Structure formats: C-alpha cells, structure tokens
Amino acid sequence: MSDSIFRGFENLEAASPKQKAKKAQKSRAIPIILCVLCLLLVSEAVIYLFVVPCMNPVRIVWRGLNGYTEKDMTAVVAPVVQKNWMRFNANVTRSLVSSVAGVEEVQVVKRFPDRVFITVKERVPVAMMFAVQGDRTVLVQVDKNGVLFPPSAATAHLSLPLISGIPVEHIPEGMRIPAHFRGLINQISDIRSRSQQYFAGVSEIHVVPKEYGNYELVLYPLHSQTRVLVDRQLNEEALQYMMVMLDVVNTLEKDVSAIDLRYGSVVYYPRQTSGGGYGLE
C-alpha cells in the first residue's frame, strides 16, 4: 500500500510541471486575445469615425413638412443629397430650402456619423391673390409678411379671402407685394387670428388704388350681391358693422347695388342708379 501511495506522489510531482506549462500558455493567450479584441474595437471605431462619414451618402430626416412632401423637398436639395457627411454643406442646404417660396424658416443640423436633420417652418397663408406667371394667370397665396407662394392641399380647408386689385403682374413666387399694401395684409392677418371667422362671409376684397399710394376697399359678401365700400382701415369692428348694415339695408331696400361706409355715414345705392354714384366703378 505504501508503494502505491509513493507512486501517487510521483505522478503528482510529474504532473505538476505540465499543469504549470498549461497555465503559462493560458496566461500568455489572455493578452493576445485582449489585443485582438482591442484591434477589433479600434477597427470598428475607425470605420464608424472615418469610413462611414467619408463614404456613405448622408441620411436626411425632414421635420415640419405639411404642405410639401419629403420627395418634393429632397428634389430641392438634390445637389447636396448624395454628398457624404464630411462634405455636406449645411449653409448651402439651408439656402436651397429657403429658396422654396412656401418656406418661411429652415434649420439644418448635422448629426454624426451620417444623418442630417432639416426642420422646416412653412408659411401660413392669410389671403389669396391672382398673379401673372409667364403667359397665364395663377392663384397664389400671401402670408402675413406679404410674400407670395403657391397654394397647397394642406391649406385648402382655410377660409381665405380673395384680394383683387393689387398690381402683382409678373411678380414671381417668393416676392413680396408692394410695400404700401402690406398694411392691408397685416389687418387681414390680425382679423384671422380672432376666434370669429369673419372672412367665411367675405368672398372678395377689391383694392381700389387712389392718388399718392392711398387706396380704398370694396368688399363682396359671400351670400349677397350688394357690395360694401369701406376705407383702408379694415378691422373686426368694421366687418361687424358691415354685416349689421347689410341686414338693415337689405330689409329696407331689396335691390341695393352697394352700401357706402367710407365717410362715417351709411349711404346705399339702388341697383338702377347709373354708375352707382360712388365713383368706384
């Protein structure tokens, strides 16, 4: 029995150097594995930091679009959309998007490694107008700043008055109407901001130019053939007064061509009166 125990100790002594060798190999393998992992991480970081931004086209994310589609706006930025993130010029992109008549503001933010966020604020129309474009007359919208831009399906539900008489012939989209008419646009914008939808009952606002840049207005009620003559001060009170006078005058006289509210009094003109008697024909 003692012999067998002695041989067991000999086997343990013999196995000990082998185990030490295996442990030494494992110890040497761990740094190698760590180095390989580090190299992989570095390679991935290089690809993420340099290869992706330098090789792949940017991915554009649109925000705030309402009247325009992503397809329409991507076509606008086509000159830069295929550039990689490193070469993508935010200022040029901002200029391209701002050139769209219906865009009021634009913000371009680059986000590493390959995305670009473009946030658009579209113009809100306050009225409609007819303008000459090329050899045809087209309907355009005008915002609170007097800028002309094309209508869209997104604004089709709005109750917008039609303004006529302002000389906008051959003024391209994105241009402003003449400066001395912008006060009228501001007045319309202020009225539309109120809770009452006053312009739902007005089909047209006709501008009658006067001397020295002055003008007067002829309002066409939606459900009446009687025109209403007012001065250039268009406000909530004037529209309320107009509605009341329409009811009163039409009750007294059925065949009224126009109601004149310009000079602080109420004058109405029967339809048979030649020329209307108000000098706005």
Terminal residue distance:
136 Å
Query: How would you describe the shape?
Result: elongated
Beta-strand fraction estimate = 25-35%
Order of helices and strands: HEHHHEEEEEEHEEEHEE
What is the typical, i.e. mean, pLDDT? 80
For the biggest β-sheet, the strand order reads: 6-5-4-7-8-9-10-11-12
Parts with pLDDT < 50 across at least 5 consecutive residues: 274-281
Give the helix proportion (percent range).
Answer: 25-40%
- By helix and strand content, what is the structural category? alpha/beta
Radius of gyration: 38 Å
Provide an overview of this structure:
The chain has 281 residues and is of the alpha/beta class. Helix content is 36%, strand content 26%. The protein contains six helices and twelve strands. The strands form two sheets. It has a nine-stranded mixed beta sheet. Strands 1-3-2 form a three-stranded mixed beta sheet.
Short description:
This protein has 281 residues and is an alpha/beta fold. 36% of the residues lie in helices and 26% in strands.
Descriptive labels:
281 residues, three-stranded mixed sheet, disordered C terminus, 6 helices, nine-stranded mixed sheet, 26% strand, alpha/beta
Show the helix and strand layout.
Elements: H1 2-55, E1 59-63, H2 70-76, H3 78-81, H4 90-98, E2 103-111, E3 115-122, E4 125-133, E5 136-143, E6 148-149, E7 162-164, H5 182-192, E8 202-209, E9 215-221, E10 227-230, H6 236-252, E11 256-260, E12 267-270
